[in-house]
Amino acid sequence: VNDSTVERTVTKIDAGQVSEVHDTMAVEEPCEIHLNGEAVAVTMRTPGNDLELAAGFLFTEGIVGVQDVATINHCGNSLVGQGEELHPENIVEVRLIPGRKARRDVRRHFFASSSCGICGKASIEAIHVNTETAADGPSISATVLTTMMDQLEPRQNVFAATGGLHAAAIFNVAGELLVVREDVGRHNAVDKAIGYALIEECLPLDENVLIVSGRTSFEIVQKALVAQIPIVAGVSAASSLAVEFAAQSNMTLVGFLRDSKMNVYAGAERVVGK
């Protein structure tokens, strides 16, 4: 089974002094997702929680619904790539309940890098058509939001070892942690966290908050909306498209969440104690 880190020897230069040192790095490897025996996607990710990654990816892409999945397992031979084979632990097979079908056309395989998962996807308009806006409520204390970031940091175990991973966490509005997941790709970390919620039958997440360790992109907000998460907050900035999408979707979007400070880009009415 793959680990999420690997040791490598690197050349370190410090104030003109050159030395060879051991460094711990985050692993990045392809994960191939199969749906009912058909390879539908390859995503570059950090190994670990791959079953959650597959579940979250298929769900947030609108390919499967909450009640559609029968089984999720690691499987055997790769169906993608001529002359290339992936190790079985890098392939996840998702089987739907008999009689259920994919909710989107998955005949076109696509590749998602760890840094960009949006390439080649449906338009923003199509996402709006297929996803309801967030319901009104709940409210959340600004103080509780800041404690969530405080809880996230010590749980980023692989980041602490490598400095190379993003994290996503889901809390309830009282500040109680549901799940933390890490990955070299920020959208993968979100998929893993939401996939956990799907597998553990915690969906919908309409009384919950998604916290991410970096900037907040449109895709992260879109994935949160599919899971009906009304509040998304990140430690860094939000993109203009993320802000626009959050506002149109009746969501609360927070950036620069650190040191008891934050920027509320959209949905400020949910944040109390401002």
What does this structure look like?
InterPro entries: Cytidine_deaminase-like, FdhD. Keywords: Cytoplasm, Molybdenum cofactor biosynthesis. The chain folds into two domains: 29-130, Ubiquitin-like (UB roll), CATH 3.10.20.10; 140-272, 3-Layer(aba) Sandwich (Cytidine Deaminase, domain 2), CATH 3.40.140. 24% of the residues lie in helices and 33% in strands. The protein has helices at 50-60, 124-130, 142-152, 157-162, 186-199, 218-226, 240-248; strands at 5-14, 17-26, 29-35, 38-45, 69-74, 91-96, 110-112, 140-141, 166-172, 177-183, 208-212, 231-234, 252-258, 261-266, 271-272. The chain has a six-stranded mixed β-sheet, with helices on both faces. It has a five-stranded mixed β-sheet with strand order 5-6-3-4-7, with helices on one face. Helix 1 (50-60) packs across helix 5 (186-199), helix 5 runs parallel beside helix 6 (218-226) and helix 6 runs parallel beside helix 7 (240-248). The longest helix is centred in the C-terminal third of the chain and has 14 residues, at 186-199. 42% of the residues are buried. Mean pLDDT is 86; it is low at 77-84 and 118-123.
- SSE topology string: EEEEHEEEHEHHEEHEHEHEEE
Distance between the termini: 47 Å
Mean pLDDT over the full residue set = 86
How many beta strands in the DSSP annotation? 15
The CATH architecture term of the largest domain is 3-Layer(aba) Sandwich
Shape: flat
> Please, what is the CATH homologous superfamily of the largest domain?
Cytidine Deaminase, domain 2
Please indicate the count of domains.
2
Assigned CATH class of the largest domain: Alpha Beta
Write down the CATH topology of the largest domain: Cytidine Deaminase, domain 2
Number of helices: 7
Helix proportion:
10-25%
Uncertain parts: 77-84, 118-123
Using the CA coordinates, give the radius of gyration: 19 Å
Q: In percent, how much strand structure appears in the residues?
A: 25-35%
Largest sheet: 6 strands, mixed
Write out the strand line-up for the largest beta sheet, numbering strands in chain order: 10-9-11-12-13-14
Structural class: alpha/beta
Protein name: Formate dehydrogenase family accessory protein FdhD
GO biological process, one term: Mo-molybdopterin cofactor biosynthetic process
GO molecular function, one term: sulfurtransferase activity
Pfam family, one: FdhD-NarQ
